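Entry 14. Structure prediction run on the chain below.
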Amino acid sequence: MLGIGNFLVVIITFIIVAFVIFVTVKLTKKWGIQWHLTPLLFMWILPSMCRNLHV
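Output returned:
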């Protein structure tokens, strides 16, 4: 069974990863670099984070 501690770890990890990606995209746009791989990056990161949720 999934405990509340594991759930909080997953949520906090998601928030940190989302923030890092957000800052990276903002900085690269400011520098004039277009980043079109953000959806692909989320598709790669989120499943690896959610593996901890399996019972």
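The chain has a mean pLDDT of 74.
Filed with the rest of this week's runs.
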